[in-house]
């Protein structure tokens, strides 16, 4: 890593699957701030097939906007020059190559699954079980299995040894070794003439040394090297993470056209988007001593980066589900009905599938009508719900969520802040009081890597620019009062002494006027069966004023789990009522039929 002695300016690059973003950050009155930002399509596929082109175009746009020269003869001008040209360094965040595809095998794969997912948390990885495979001739089921694995093109075969203290019979590891050898043979022999060659996956073993020696001996026939790392246990999660992490760059990124030229401009190896967002979440959690969730729904993947007040990373991610190329995988996983249930208008399954197909074929396209926008937001809700339920995710148990930040391609680009707030309220496991914010500067995903070079520099920008649009506090209830009755009595006492009382009815969303920067004391009295985070029926009164946001103060008295209506007409009416409550226009709620 090339760490400049003092950071005054940085170019931050994020190569996503659909768009490449560049941001220029530097000092304004001696305070780190975002100076400019530009976005261009990622050029990883024909006809251009050179990711350097998209990054260079984004940097050129920043040069045009700021009048500041950043590149000369294809090279970064660094360090920053006395005349203001150039920057001190550049960082690179990426998800363009897709996740690191890891196939897990071995006698400890199932018993140590929880530790395995915790160990690889923060890595942009897709973990699949390695199917059993007998030798040729292959039957129809085996041929289909081979085709599926070839399509995924695994980067790593991870062998998990027996849990500490468990029986370590030679037969189980020998069987695993034989399965690996069978897969190597099957992947070397294309099923069809036009099948592309498969690069043999790396083999990583986590377990006891005697088991590692046995596995290495069994695999000698294939002349395959085995990287050995410490056995998994609650206290030894990082060795496997450190062993797998570097493979991401070599296997998923280096084959990308133009990657090597882009990589040479950066001061450090690239960081996956989930890792970068995790760094931002951990910084904010420690800075405010609160539990934080950062949500990012992209074209191909969805990331929920959580962090506890102590700075523990609690991720939830779906690396192959999004609203663009990842929409097909998402629709197959959740079904059309679960997407349609979020829409404030009637839509048939065929229309939904046609839209998803268009988004898969045209990843750079944006919603062109209110109907398409609502479909995209419905897909985003299901993608976030899938990320919450992803294998190894512990995010659904994070209580309370004190701060929720919406960022990324979908959540930071909503027509109004209310759209982003409603998506967060519909999907995140909120209870009690949560402060919502929108990263309208769309910079959060870039700052984790910047924090490696200059922690204080990046941290200041995260506080000022990534949290630039506070949506306001929200009170979320669990439990339920009888239908039509008041779930929460809320009172605001403003600085000038006047008071406002609101009755939040069960099943509804309510807004209290409290503008951005305006402060007021509040008190809450829930129904005996309603919990606002302190126990059923327990009241709350703030000892210090609370600050409003773009939506004022919101009381979400719908209850948890969210009571979605079963009937089509009732569901549509419900969705429209929730949108009206947050000030989302009737035209957007019903869809643009033109």
Secondary structure layout:
Layout: E1 9-15, E2 19-28, E3 31-41, H1 51-66, E4 71-72, E5 75-76, E6 89-94, E7 100-105, H2 113-119, E8 125-129, H3 140-152, E9 156-160, H4 170-188, E10 202-206, H5 209-218, E11 226-229, H6 238-253, H7 259-265, E12 271-272, H8 273-288, E13 292-297, E14 302-307, E15 313-318, H9 327-334, H10 336-340, H11 349-361, H12 370-388, E16 403-407, H13 408-411, H14 417-427, E17 432-438, H15 444-453, H16 455-466, E18 469-476, E19 478-479, E20 486-494, E21 499-505, E22 509-512, E23 519-526, E24 530-531, E25 540-541, E26 546-547, E27 553-556, H17 568-581, H18 586-590
Parallel strand pairs: 1-6, 6-12, 7-8, 7-9, 9-10, 10-11, 13-16, 16-17, 18-27
Antiparallel strand pairs: 1-2, 2-3, 4-5, 13-14, 14-15, 17-18, 19-24, 20-21, 20-23, 22-27, 23-25, 23-26
Helix pairs in contact: 4-5, 8-15, 9-12, 12-14, 15-16
Fold and architecture overview:
Helix 8 (about 275-290) packs across helix 15. The model has no long low-confidence stretch (mean pLDDT about 90). Among the domains are: about 10-95, Nucleotidyltransferase, domain 5 (2-Layer Sandwich), CATH 3.30.420; about 100-255, Rossmann fold, CATH 3.40.50; about 270-315 and about 395-475 and about 560-585, no CATH class. About 35% of the residues lie in helices and about 25% in strands. It is globular, with a radius of gyration of 26 Å. The chain has 18 helices and 27 strands. With about 600 residues, it is of the alpha/beta class.
Kindly summarize this structure in a few lines:
With 594 residues, the chain is α/β, with parallel strands linked by helices.
